[in-house]
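[Discussion] Sanity-checking designs against the backbone

I'm trying to build intuition for which residues belong where. Below is a structure token string of 289 positions. I'd appreciate it if someone posts a full sequence so I can compare it with mine line by line.
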């Protein structure tokens, strides 16, 4: 059984939903968990439930966009160390693209992306000292979602941040991965989705089907880094970037692009693009060899 005895895990946005479920599972498996949320009542409620079930938990209330350092310090003060950061806190508001897009994208970037960066950065010395684990939260909407340009852009930023920071992390024994979940939570219940789809989510997409993936990625023997794992209703998949063989022409003209579009876009030769600097598959560096 994968156990977390002696480990301390900080989970952001863990007062409810997916974050709370991750915290409950890690606590059940022996970790001391630090529950961050800007909703202090929800955070306290989660701590009480985990403690009542025999787990070890402490609150670190705060807004990850402003209080990242204080939240990390509170985690270290509570249990004396920090081994695992689960960057889960996030928001999702409809953001049809148009004249107000910049404000909306800035807000989503601030919380979903820069909040993730800020907590990871503040925790970094502890993670390096303890060969720690970071689990970020992307979204299956990474592939594009109508009316959600701000949310999807912010999750895209988390995706590439995960990939790129994992390179530096590997050298110090830290692993940085992400999940892209679907689960019925407050966020899902408030989303602009048809009722039938919400009913399906409620019945078949539980947070309990997502948290085990977070637990594996947070585990000390987790062997992967820079990956994003889709976790939806019991289906677990790799979300990859891929490149095909493409078309080569050193005298390229606009007409060549037009005439060879099919070859340029042909996915049949596509291969997953590994993380630069890691040992996985094709790397961007291979292009320059
Ligand atoms: N539920 C899904 O289907 C789904 C799908 C894709 C991605 N996600 C991602 O999973 C994560 C959790 O989502 P959820 O569905 O549990 O949402 P939720 O709204 O149910 O819970 C999110 C929690 O984060 C907290 N939070 C928000 N902003 C914060 C901040 N600045 N500082 C601290 N806490 C903050 C909220 O108070 C809330 O308790 C989010 O990053 C979300 O984008 C969820």
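Best answer:
Here's mine. Compare freely.
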């Amino acid at each position: 059984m994968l156990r977390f005895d002696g480990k301390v895990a900080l989970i952001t946005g863990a007062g409810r939903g997916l974050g709370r479920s991750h915290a409950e599972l890690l606590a059940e498996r022996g970790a001391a968990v630090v529950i961050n949320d800007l909703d202090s009542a929800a955070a306290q409620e989660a701590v009480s439930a985990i403690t009542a079930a025999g787990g070890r938990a402490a609150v670190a209330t705060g807004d990850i966009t402003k209080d990242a350092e204080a939240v990390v310090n509170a985690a270290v003060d509570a249990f004396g160390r920090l081994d695992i950061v689960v960057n889960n806190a996030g928001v999702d508001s409809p953001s049809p693209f148009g004249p107000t897009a910049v404000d909306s994208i800035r807000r989503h970037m601030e919380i979903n992306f820069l909040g993730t960066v800020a907590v990871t950065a503040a925790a970094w010395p502890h993670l390096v000292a303890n060969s720690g684990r970071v689990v970020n939260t992307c979204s299956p909407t990474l592939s594009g979602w109508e009316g959600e340009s701000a949310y999807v852009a912010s999750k895209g930023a988390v995706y590439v941040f995960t990939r790129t920071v994992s390179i530096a992390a590997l050298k110090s024994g830290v692993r940085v991965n992400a999940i892209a979940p679907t689960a019925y939570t407050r966020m899902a219940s408030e989303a602009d989705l048809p009722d039938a789809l919400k009913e399906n989510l409620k019945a078949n997409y539980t947070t309990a089907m997502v948290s085990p993936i977070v637990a594996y990625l947070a585990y000390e023997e987790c062997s992967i880094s820079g990956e994003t794992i889709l976790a939806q209703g019991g289906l677990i998949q790799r979300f990859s970037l891929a490149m095909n063989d493409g078309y080569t022409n050193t005298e390229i003209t606009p007409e060549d692009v037009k005439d060879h579009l099919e070859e340029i876009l042909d996915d049949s030769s596509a291969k997953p693009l590994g993380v630069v600097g890691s040992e996985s598959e094709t790397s961007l560096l291979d292009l320059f060899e």
